[in-house]
Amino acid sequence: MTNHPTNQPPNFFGALDTFDTGSGRAQLYRLSHLEKSGVGHIDRLPFSIKVLLESVLRNCDGYVVTEDDVRALANYNAQSPAPVEVPFKVARVVMQDFTGVPAVVDLAAMRSAAKRLGGDPKKINPLIPVDLVIDHSVQVDVFGSGDALRLNADIEFERNRERYEFLRWGQQAFNNFRVVPPATGIVHQVNLEYLAKVVLLRDGVALPDTLVGTDSHTTMINGLGVVGWGVGGIEAEAAMLGQPLYMLTPQAIGFGLRGQLREGVTATDLTLTVVQMLRQKGVVDKFVEFYGPGLSQISLADRATIANMAPEYGATMGFFPIDAETLDYLRRTGRTDAEVALVERYAKEQGLFRADTTPDPEFTGTLELDLGTVEPSLAGPKRPQDRVPLSEMKLAFRKALTAPVKERGFGLPNLQPSPSNLPIGHGAVVIAAITSCTNTSNPSVMLGAGLLAKKAVERGLTPPQHVKTSLAPGSKVVTDYLKEAGVLPYLEQIGFNIVGYGCTTCIGNSGPLPQAVAQAITEGNLVAAAVLSGNRNFEGRIHPLTKANYLASPPLVVAYALAGTVDIDLAHEPIGMGQDGQPVYLKDIWPTQKEIGDAVASAVKSEMFTREYADVFDGNPTWNAIPVAGGELYEWNEASTYIQEPPYFVDLTLDVELIQPITGLRVLAIFGDSVTTDHISPAGDIPEKSPAGQYLISKGVQKKDFNSYGARRGNDRVMTRGTFANIRIKNLMLPGVESGETIHVPSGARMSIYDAAMAYQAEGTPLVVLAGKEYGTGSSRDWAAKGPFLQGVRVVIAESFERIHRSNLVGMGVLPLQFKDGQSAESLGLTGREVFDIAGLDDNPKPRQAVTVKAKREDGSTIEFETTVRIDTPIEVEYYRNGGILHTVLRKLIREA
After folding, report:
1. Angle between the 885-896 and 803-811 helix axes, to the nearest 10 degrees?
2. Is 863 within 8 Å of 829 (Cβ atoms)?
3. Cα–chain-centroid distance for residue 320?
4. At 74, which helix (H) or strand (E)?
5. DSSP state string for 654-707
6. Which residues pair with 769 in a beta bridge?
7. Pairing of the two strands 767-771 and 793-798
């Protein structure tokens, strides 16, 4: 181990050096020095791996991060990366309020626990910068009106006052913690346009801007050359408290781009194509890095659109290296000359700057796309990777109507017409929403939508009355350039008034449908549709009454709003009749690439970004007027229905129990493939008759004040009751049924999953969940792990796990086990009526070890099968031993005091 003075930065490998930033000299940990010293082969490493290596080198202290860690990553073998863990310390954390509130609740609860255990509560404090952007709370209650923005904001503050008071407390109680108020923008767009610096200066040392976020679409920042991805709130809290993120050395898949997009093709079309290709390739848990001459043809905003949807193609990241376009984007968005110069000089010093002449890195595998082959597309009706060419939409929708549910269809017996007594039929577009950071960060598609709206208005087209239209920009800059281009009035004339600055429809905050529309859908059992410019379209996410949900570019959202149905071939059928009585086709109103390019060039100005972000933290007077409670400890209020102290740490001691076999497990539910965190974690509307709804009523809350599950994530009493309560979830213990219900064994009683879990808890029975492939896919919802844990689930056995959800289960002390290839609950004949024992578990578990599961049937016979323990790294063993990641950190901080 190399010794170094405590007042000097560590200098293992002698890599610490200086360089000229353009504004003076600064230090850096020079990667090229490793290769000169005979450590590794740095030059041809993927850019994303170089950024990881820089973090490991800079944070090497011989203890938490060792010299062996540096050597292992510096000798990265792209063809077969060594299965060793990388201790990755990020530079900062970003959060949105749905995931951020429970994270701050956990920090407050850890402070309370530290006080009870005799520790110093102030030790519980973010050690790196944390930014929380309030973007998930606004709902589309009012639409199609010039007052929609103001009224929705008023309703948002009224609904969420308790949560906002709590966040205001956190803002003053914790160091390194900033809050971007409501009605400002969407976290990932604010991150892209303002928070991210690409290169940071800390204590005179330059370093890459790296982060994790409590939302899976944190990957949007990869478009700016910043390494970052989404994690559960549990992992993010550990990162805030100075813990490294431990990950197995990733494979890096190169995605080559060449050529350029054709006329009429948008960045969204490209992104949906990339999603489909990478899903077919199989890139779960892998880094995807884009390379090739086509990169120079893709704008930064287009890159960010592609990077945003990395969770949809399953990758940890979708990374674009720093290049000249990165620097131009920083200038266009109001970053200072000094900031841009620092990025350019540091990236070039570190070998992190890409040019067209740069040799391609060495990748684990590659695939390639000719941009000229991309065609206009949508994705749906149930998954973002299911791309549908625009020319095939009508045929694909009609096929989905009668396709079996297990094939992601709707299972209608035939293609009989919708009931004639109803004003709408199957395929009616009842929600058309320009929403989500994915596309609202991209001026080309936003101005494209505005130009299409202008042409539509000039031809006399308007959406049918049953279409709920909304426009939710990801930042106020979008409003500025839509106004500057003169297209906002045209969007408003066809109902796309601004409804709020937040995620809205993309996360299920679509608000209520007009009563007549909702009634028609219910009475006719219609397969109604939503078309949105978002990134997720899983069942039950967008709105309970829209069974078919399609992702599309903002211009196509406007087009389908005008058509009023997805049961149409927009490539060949008229979108509507013009005021002159003549049919109008989509090609008649679709803007040209030149029209869009000219609008972007003239309307998007750097001073817009400078002006809108000048007072980003204190520019909302309603937020500033919220009273702030003081004190280092939060005063928990038992009467609150929004904020409660979670039970994880209430009875915590400093003693760690031995890991032992888990016996006597009963099955809470059996699930098939692709069960998402939206299915598991409470999200969206709280039904009145649900366990969560009944709880709120018992606390005196009226239905109109229920708000959403997301808004109540700071109250475990609500969230535990809403876990597995999604109306579209299919528990295979109840074949053919969509609901959050199960069978209590051995009584045989049918009840809600929550009620069954409570019955099992009263009996002292631990629980297991059985699942198929891709269990936990979707957004990084910590409540998808917390909720099952609080219901008594101690083990999940699945055919495969989504990356973030698996780590979150471990982070809550829930054991993830994976069936051996070719085996499943179905193949093993498991019915859910068995009693399970996890026999091969002891106090010395090894990452990915095999354990035997014994299932005893009701007739007394036993089936045994082997599973893999999906505790993937040694540090995860420690987390599991302590009962979770936060328990580990809390005990460590108290012992060190």
Report:
1. 50
2. yes
3. 19
4. helix 67-74
5. S--PPP--EEEEEEEEE--TT-BHHHHS--SB--TTSHHHHHHHHTT--GGG--
6. 669, 796
7. parallel
Rg for the chain, CA atoms, rounded: 27
Edge-to-edge, what's the strand order for the sheet holding 205-208?
16-20, 25-29, 205-208, 199-202
Residue environment code for 79-102, b if the CB has 16+ CB neighbours within 10 A, otherwise e: eebeeebbbbbbbbbbbbbbbbbb
Bridge-partner residues for 291, per DSSP?
Answer: 256
Cα–Cα separations (whole angstroms), residue 198 to 322, 335, 415, 529, 608: 9, 11, 53, 40, 20
Q: How far is CA 415 from CA 494, 606, 791, in A?
A: 32, 53, 42
- pLDDT for 5: 39
Of the candidates 285, 279, 281, 212, the residue with the CA atom closest to the CA atom of residue 249: 285
Q: Are 684 and 544 in contact (CB under 8 A)?
A: yes
pTM exceeds 0.90: no
According to DSSP, the residues that pair with 432 across neighbouring strands are 469, 531
Q: Three-class SS of residue 5? A: coil
Residue length, the chain? 897
State how far the Cα of 5 lies from the Cα of 18, in Å rounded to an integer.
Answer: 18
Q: What are phi and psi of 306, to 5 degrees?
A: -65, -45
Structure token pair of residue 611: 């002006």
DSSP 457-476: HHTT----TT-EEEE--SBH
**Contact call for residues 90 and 245 (beta carbons, < 8 A):** yes
DSSP alpha helix (H) spans, 117-207: 148-159, 161-173, 187-190
Strands in 778-841 per DSSP E: 793-798, 815-819, 835-838
Is 481 in contact with 341 (CB distance < 8 Å)?
no
Torsions phi, psi for 498 (to 5 deg): -70, 125
Spatial distance between the Cα atoms of 314 and 355, rounded to a whole number of angstroms = 28
Question: CA triplet 803, 808, 809: central angle to 5 degrees?
Answer: 105
Give me the amino acid identity at 565: T
Domains of the chain, start order: 12-76 (no CATH), 377-583 (3.30.499.10), 651-896 (3.20.19.10)
Location of structure tokens 């020079």: 30
> Helices marked H in 800-872 — which ranges?
803-811
CB 548 within 8 A of CB 513: no
* pLDDT mean values, one per 10 residues, the chain (897 residues): 50 94 96 93 96 97 90 96 93 94 94 94 93 94 96 93 94 95 97 98 97 94 97 88 89 96 96 96 95 94 97 95 98 97 98 96 97 97 96 97 91 80 92 95 98 98 97 98 98 98 92 95 95 91 94 98 98 96 97 97 98 95 90 93 94 92 97 92 87 96 88 94 92 91 95 97 97 87 93 97 88 96 96 95 92 96 97 89 93 85
- Taking every pair of Cα atoms in the chain, the longest distance, rounded to a whole number of angstroms, is 84
